[in-house]
Structure formats: structure tokens, C-alpha cells
Amino acid sequence: MSEITPDLVRHLGVLARIQLSDDEVTQLTGQLDAIVDNIAKVSEVATPDVVATSHPIAMSNVFRPDEVGQTLTHAQVLQNAPDSADGRFRVTAILGEEQ
Amino acid sequence: MSDIIRLTAAELGEKLAAREISSVEATQAHLDRIAAVESDVRAFLHVNENALAAAGEIDARRAAGEQLGPIAGVPLAVKDVLVTTDMPSTSGSKILEGYMSPFDATVVARARAAGLVPLGKTNMDEFAMGSSTEHSAFGPTRNPWDLDRIPGGSGGGSAAAVAAFEAPLALGSDTGGSIRQPAHVTGTVGTKPTYGGVSRYGSIALASSLDQVGPVTRTVLDAGLLHDVIGGYDANDSTSLRDEWPSFAAAAREGASGEVLKGLKVGVIKELPDSGFQSGVAASFRESLALMEAQGAEIVEISAPHFEYGVAAYYLILPAEASSNLAKFDSVRFGLRVTPEGGATVEDVMSATREAGFGPEVKRRIILGTYALSAGYYDAYYGSAQKVRTLIQRDFDQAFAQVDVIATPTAPTTAFKLGEKIDDPLQMYLNDVSTIPANLAGVPGISIPAGLADEDGLPVGFQFLAPAREDARLYRVGAAVESVLVDSWGGPLLDRAPVLGGAR
Fold first, then answer.
1. What ipTM, to 2 d.p.?
2. CA separation (Å) from B249 to B72, B90, B389?
3. Could you tell me which residues are beta bridge partners of residue B465?
């Protein structure tokens, strides 16, 4: 069995910036436990001598010429913003009272 | 049903070039079909109100004597994961409802430049996470073969649109089988190109090291024609390959004679035993192999001992990459914003927005990915999964030293009932057991119709895999097997699909 607990799921929700209801925490705890039990088998064959592959087709140092290409206009950048003011994205307070 | 919508894209392209049909007529015929069957199929999230105008422009260019490409004027359905300037792009999520992209995905821009007429945006599992389209925030698509069954996923909308003759061509994206598995359950054709063969620019990222855009069609030749349009190097995608690609349509035409099957070495994986597949799926696969053998192909048993770890590795790598990619949906620059009552900080707003905007499967995978990447677990999970990727690549290398292509059934079962697996994520994940290894290794794969399963009369797909960069081989072999099978059936498999458009 893995070590997925409701507290861990709640903590992961905070890290992932997803508010989770108690029902969601209960459901996710059971589901993740089963999933993690299954996927943990990767460690059976992942021995130290095997190199890791991050990318299916190996490439390195992909550069482009340092030239100004197509860019979005200010209006295009802001057109989907939930809120904006003075040509900037507007958000609520960054810091809470206790901070 | 209008004859126009039964034409393949290749046939329609010829009639358009010969001016027997105009693009406006072809587009109108498909819009009429959409109007007639969408209440049953629900393949589209959005239908393009400017489609006829775009078609008219192609007709005008042709009338002015301009030389256009082989499928100019043919309508195209676009998976909603691809951003478009003239239609909303949601990736099947509430968090992006109404989002209008300031730019076109490269594949969409290339399709427009080739004269294809975008008909609309097709339904999909939210952010392409799923195998049934049931995880779409906008409701499921239904399988044209049986409206109570799933059309596959994540690209169920594109596959259903093509199978229901709502579009001759569609674009899909395949991260673990999202083009090929829907093709399997709908009796259509789908290709996942070599990783880097088609630009991902403007494809809303799920797992960047696995995602690949590709064609969804009714014939292998049509897939080659669409692949020719969308493929090739793109400076906007830093993983794009600089290879000079041959014409995939030419490869399909060359393959259709069946000559390629003589002496072709076809690998069958011994670790994917028939017992793991529904009996009708296994039987259909064996029959197709026997037909290939009768045409001169040699069936060779190969070993791929690490494929059985593929699903496990995939469900570590994908959530890890997805949890990072989906961090951008933070309520600041685009998408939904939900503000809790009373003086909330920006972090509270983010958490409330993501709670309200993401569906259960997306939350599940983000939480799983966050876990797999957390300190203390990274090496055991994500690091090990990346090693499995190496082992699966080695399995492919060893196999392709012995055989030209590998063949598998595309998925373990035919289309299951809507709702049947929605509450069992592990069962849902196993749908991708045969398709995932190609994504992990970056090799190309194609699924073509193999027949109908005896026990339920539903379509079964046959998957071919080839070495990286050998996509043309898939089109040659796929077209050869397709022509042998269609001959043996006396017509395309989709001729046997039930008639749609009646009241339900």
C-alpha cells in the first residue's frame, strides 16, 4: 500500500492551487492510493545503470536567430484577461492580512 | 444523404479541381449533415459561421486560375485543443470557455494556407485527459456506430465527426493514443506522427514530451494528404524536426497496390497476448494478420519485455508534465476567474478558480503529478518512469532490427457504454495499453479499420508502428492492408455503420 492520506491530498491541493472539498479529498485519497500502487511498479526495472530519457527524440542546443519575430500587440495580450486596468493585468491583493 | 459527404477527401479534391463541385457546395453539404446528425452525435463544440465565406474565397481563387493544392476547398474539423483566431478554443474545459486565441496553431495556419475550410471545433476530454470524451466539460460525444457508446478519447469528437460523414478530414492530437484509440472504436483512420514531425505550436499542451498532432480521416490516403499539409519544420516549436519529409500521400498511393506486403516483416509482440484483448478484437487482429500473410508478409514474433511498464510510466510522466503545463491557468492572464466572497488574496482566487474550472479527471492528474514531482518522491517515481522510457525505446530498437513494422490491436476492447468506466480511472487508463509505448518512444503509429468484432458488431482497429522518422512506411503498409481488407469486405467498413439522422 502507498502512503496517500487525506492530509497529504489536502497538502497537494495547496501546492497545486486547487481548493478541494472534503468529499473530493476522500474520493481522491482512495483513487490516488490505487493508482500509485499500480504505477509504483516502474521502480522494479529502473535500475541505476539505465539512463533516463526526458525527450523521445534527442536534441540539444536548439537556438534561433536573435531577431525580433512576430509579437502580440498589447491589446491582443489583454483581450482574454479576466480583468485589466491601464494596460496591465489586474488581480486582487497579493498579500493577506496576516502577511 | 448527399453523395458529396460520402466522398473521400482525395476524391472530393479531384472533383473540386475539375470544378465538378464547388467548395461552397461541398461545405454546405457538410454543414447540412452537421445540422442533421449533431443532436445525436455531438461531435462539435462550435460550428464555424464563416465556413461558407472561406469556401467562397477558395472557389474565387480557383476561378481566377490560381493553382491550388490537392485538397484545397475540402472541409476540415479541428480538435478544440488547437487554437484558432476565428473560433473559441477551450480544450474541452470550462476554465477556457469562450477563449479567443490571438493566433492560429501552426497546423491550423498551414491547413488554411492549403485551402482547407475549417468547419468547426470538435469535442474532446478536458485538456485531452481521457479515453472516452466523457471528461469533456461540455458533455460527451456519442459513437456513430451506437449512440449509447463512447467514441473514444480524447479526440472522440474528431473521430465521430469523420465517421458520421460530418467532415472528410479532421485534426487530432495524440499524447497516449488520443488519435488512434478513437479511430479504433469508430472504424476510421488516425495517425500519430513521429514526435517532432508536426508542430505543436498552438496545441494547448497536455504533456509536452508526448503530445503530437496528426490526421483523423476515413482512408489512409486522406491521412497522408492531410499529413503532407500540416507536417514539417516549424521554428515556433523547438522540438520540431528539421527533416525533409517525403510525401505521405505518395507513400499511400504507392502502398495501395499491395506490393509492399511481399516479404514485409511484421512483428507481433509476444508480451501483448491475445488473452488481454476482447475475443472479437483478438480474432479480427488474427484475421488481418492472416490476410497480410496470404499477400506475402512474414509474421515474426518479437519480444518487448518493458511494454508492460508503459502504462505505469505514462501515468507518472503525463501527470507530472500536465501539472506543470496547467499551472498557467491561474485566473490572471486568460480564462475563468472565480473570486471568493470577502477580501481574497490572489492565491485564494487561483485556488477557487481552479476548483471551479477543472473537472475531476484534470484535478486527479494534477494532484497525482504534483505528488510524483514532490521532494522525496521525484527519483522513485518520475525518475524511474524516465528510465522505463529508455527501456521501451531499447525494446523498439531491438524489435526494429528484426522487423519492418510492429502490429498490434489498437485497443483492448471495442467501444464501451457511456458511463461504464467513468468511475474507475485505472480501468480507463488501460485503454491505452497498446498505444502508449509509441508516445513514450516518439515513434509513429497508425490505426486503420480491421473489421467488426463478432460478439458486438462494433469496429476494431489494427495498429502499425514504425521506427522514428519512418512515417512514410506506415502509409505504404497501411494503404496496402486497407486495400486488401476493403476488397475482402466488398466496400469500406463505414458502409456498414447504422444510418444516422433519424429522430431519437
1. 0.95
2. 15, 31, 31
3. B406, B445
Write down the residue that cell numbers 508478409 correspond to.
B297
Kindly tell me the sign of the dihedral angle through the C-alpha atoms of B476, B276, B163, B75: negative
B63 touches chain A (CB under 8 A): no
What is the per-residue pLDDT across B183-234, written as a single tens digit (0 to 9) for each? Answer: 999 999 999 999 999 999 999 999 999 999 999 999 999 999 999 999 999 9
**B178 a catalytic residue:** yes
DSSP character at residue B231: B
Cβ contacts of A25 on chain B, cutoff 8 Å = none
- Closest among B188, B170, B165 to B448, alpha carbons compared: B188
Q: How far is A1 from chain B (nearest CA, A)?
A: 15
Say if residues B167 and B415 touch (Cβ distance below 8 Å): no
Kindly report, residue by residue over B340-365, the tens digit of the pLDDT: 987 689 999 999 999 999 999 999 99
**Set of cell numbers at residue B477:** 503498409
Q: How far apart are CA B338 and CA A91, in angstroms?
A: 11
Half-sphere exposure of A76 (CA within 13 A, CB side): 9
Q: B320: burial class by Cβ within 10 Å (0-12, 13-18, 19+)?
A: buried
Q: Which residues pair with B299 in a beta bridge?
A: B266
| pTM beyond 0.90 | yes
Residues 6 or more apart from B179 whose CB is under 8 A from it?
A: B155, B158, B172, B173, B190, B191, B192, B214, B215, B216, B447
Cβ within 8 Å, pair A20-B363:
yes
pLDDT at A99 over 60: no
Chain A residues with beta carbon closer than 8 angstroms to that of B364? 28, 31-32
Query: In chain A, what's the furthest Cα-to-Cα distance?
Result: 56
Q: What would the mean pLDDT of B113-127 be, rounded to a whole number? A: 98
Q: What is the pLDDT of residues B2-32, one digit of tens each?
A: 799 999 999 999 999 999 999 999 999 999 9
Structure confidence by residue, pLDDT tens digits, B43-90: 999 999 999 999 999 999 999 999 999 999 999 999 999 999 999 999
Quick one: pLDDT at residue A2? 65
B360-372 and A22-39 helices, crossing angle to 10°: 60
Which amino acid belongs to residue B311? V
Which set of grid coordinates corresponds to residue A28?
A: 481522491
* Residue written as grid cell 508480451: B271
pLDDT digits (tens, 9 = 90+) for B379-406: 889 999 999 999 999 999 999 999 999 9
Closest-CA residue of chain A to B426: A35
DSSP 8-state secondary structure symbol assigned to residue B481: H
Please tell me which of the candidates B194, B323, B390 has its beta carbon nearest to residue A51.
B390
CB contacts of B337 in chain A (<8 Å) are: 82-83
